[in-house]
């Protein structure tokens, strides 16, 4: 079939390489409204929930049973379930209804009712509600720090840089599980070098992860996955009770932890049982809450390519974050999966969490190139920092990371890599060479690293795991080899685990190791100018290192004199020679400014215009218009003084017009407004055409040129024009003598 | 003693450092660099104390975080339980791993040997659930 040329172009669009799917509700391939989603219901007898979402107690599966036993507040449920869902949705966006009031209501809502409530909301309303319902007042961010080689030197350098950029939490994982001890150690050294107080995790199989945590090499965990159907939960080798037992286990060792859930995982594992992704996720979220976890990473997470392939899929993903916040939980929102080829689509998804702010905007921003990301790539990677920072600056929104200079990146990467090198030397671990340190500091990815003996690293890791070696040994070794400050910071982190303040909802640490959580930094958003506000100092920090141009960059040092070859010779008088064409220049032309917007020297511009006129056998005459920077006025003044009645007006930046004296100033014979596009040839052609008009001919106008890139000259053009306008003097036109 | 309140008593490290001690009984202020350098600080000195978790549970309860408080109380009980037994107990209550008797035995150990009554009850429930959903050993 014949297709349009536009369709052929359209087919090349990056977004068309994404897979968009039709719904298959019978297997649960549907974002909302699955055929087996229950209607919300509750029946309470003697303060006991005996029916929930259409199932009686006898019909409950173990997820229902857990939610009913440990989650939903029956007293509140009586009141809350009687409320109309749309009414609750309105309260969510009503600034006069507080977060606390809504938390109370939500504590009595069943999974189906929660879904019914958020289903009444569009994405903007979901974002408004998310802004109010987020647990911690200040948003934060989490990064992936990984590489396919499990290279510890590079991990330390990357962790330090990520910490310096402001990520509050860093997570790593390993290609080879036995590399984990050294990876965790490298992450810890790097993070505390970059910014004291950053907490770290190493995502592994439960038992190893717990053990590494118990040794004090990591400070939090988030791998405890839960699912929304009994079959999938069981396939995942757990029940709500076993998962909650793990929650207690982590807390018993003073470690922060959050669960991990996310829509789409059930259908991916084959047992969605005809229920929608969002409904099953609502069950997971209640399970997280009932299990006593302070939060969850959700928002589809790994299943994002699937959920985003559904109609309204990304809206449902934003809604699941909202439900999590409604239950008072910390949300690490699922911007941690590469789901789209299209940067526009990826950023659009991210904006739904970045703009309202979540407790952790990305549950894993890839601080390394996605090609090195062993979590299989994130929504954003290190190459996207400029986009992320630009959005923060454009919208004055705090996405919880800050730009840094390359000098600072190099310095902190070097500091961390050297610290690890010294530590390894002190502890008699496999040598880190100077060459490796150097490579890690400047690397793009692990491909830039010299080969390392992984077997030796594994041996050292095994020794760590099998001996008593622990966090205090690291503190001691660091101190002894001269890294006193780093040692102090690591000791402080170990002390925090004894204090347990960071076991509460949404807890992170600031630079001074003060805990910041929903307990002491509770989100109190209640409309404009309330809740989290970007302070002046924070705003300055978000703007710093953004490689902005300064207006001065565009202006060459102020010239007091004309460029050689131009001189003034008294007032310009009306011409009498019908063979002359006037070239009328603007106030700073050839003097305070000496070249056009694309750096074409003004004397060359004049030479070409003159040459064009002379080629037609006429004579150029030059005047300067002092009292206006407006091209129409300049050209009009010129044409009035021109013996032929024809003038060429030109501004310093190069914008040009051919004018005739009987035209009103804003009319013209030919206008050349795209100054960034004009070179010598064009100016010569303009001179030629002007001369032809002067001879009474009707030349072919010079064809219009178009390049949308000229838009990017707008700032320079504005600055040059403002500079020129500032030099206007209330003087009559001056005759110029120009020698080439 | 008055119950701790999230508005006045949190964070404990800043408001009540005097009440904080490691599992070994060592006061938190005694976790100094000098002591670490002299080799006087052991892994167990970096472990959270049961009482601290109970205090954090009070903070959570006062803030309305009922479930977190319950979890912290269970965690308090687990501070006495060795790492190996925690992992063993966890594995015992996972699907298709154990007979009910094995689960009940773990619960009894938790209760009798480690005074972890609330957790023991939780483990018994886990066993009940596995039995009712036919996910004990041999059910698959």
List strands and helices in order, with pairings.
The complex is a heterodimer of chains A (740) and B (140).
Chain A: H1 5-10, E1 42-45, E2 48-52, E3 55-56, H2 62-71, H3 74-80, H4 85-93, H5 99-106, H6 111-119, H7 123-133, E4 140-144, H8 152-164, E5 169-173, H9 180-194, E6 199-203, H10 206-214, E7 220-225, H11 230-235, H12 240-252, E8 256-260, H13 265-268, H14 277-290, E9 295-298, H15 304-307, H16 313-326, E10 330-333, H17 343-354, E11 360-366, H18 385-395, H19 406-427, H20 434-442, H21 454-466, H22 471-480, H23 484-499, E12 508-509, E13 515-516, H24 536-543, E14 566-571, E15 580-585, H25 602-615, E16 619-624, H26 631-641, E17 646-650, E18 656-660, E19 670-672, H27 680-694, H28 714-725, E20 734-738
Parallel strand pairs in A: 4-5, 4-11, 5-6, 7-8, 8-9, 9-10, 15-16, 15-17
Antiparallel strand pairs in A: 1-2, 2-3, 12-13, 14-20, 16-20, 17-18, 18-19
Helix pairs in contact in A: 2-14, 4-6, 6-14, 6-16, 7-16, 8-9, 8-19, 8-20, 9-19, 14-16, 19-20, 22-23, 25-27
Chain B: H1 6-9, H2 12-15, H3 33-37, H4 50-62, H5 66-78, H6 83-92, H7 100-114, H8 117-132
- Count the E strands of chain B: 0
Total beta strands of chain A: 20
What is the CATH superfamily label of the domain at 137-221 and 250-255 and 296-302 and 338-348 and 355-542 in chain A?
Diol/glycerol dehydratase, large subunit
Radius of gyration of chain A: 34 Å
User: Which whole number gives the mean pLDDT of chain B?
Assistant: 96
Quaternary assembly: heterodimer
For the record, the CATH architecture of the domain at 137-221 and 250-255 and 296-302 and 338-348 and 355-542 in chain A stands as Alpha-Beta Barrel
Structural class per helix/strand content of chain A? alpha/beta
Order of helices and strands of chain B: HHHHHHHH
Our count of domains of chain B comes out at 2
Can you tell me the residue ranges of chain A where pLDDT is under 50 for at least 5 consecutive residues?
Answer: none
What is the radius of gyration of chain B computed over CA atoms, rounded to a whole number of angstroms? 18 Å
Largest β sheet strand count, sense and barrel closure of chain B: none
Structural class of chain B: mainly alpha
Strand percentage of chain B lies at under 5%
Biggest β-sheet description of chain A: 7 strands, mixed
Helical percentage of chain B: 55-70%
Stretches with pLDDT under 50, minimum 5 residues of chain B: none
**Mean pLDDT of chain A, as a whole number?**
96
Overall geometric form of chain A: elongated
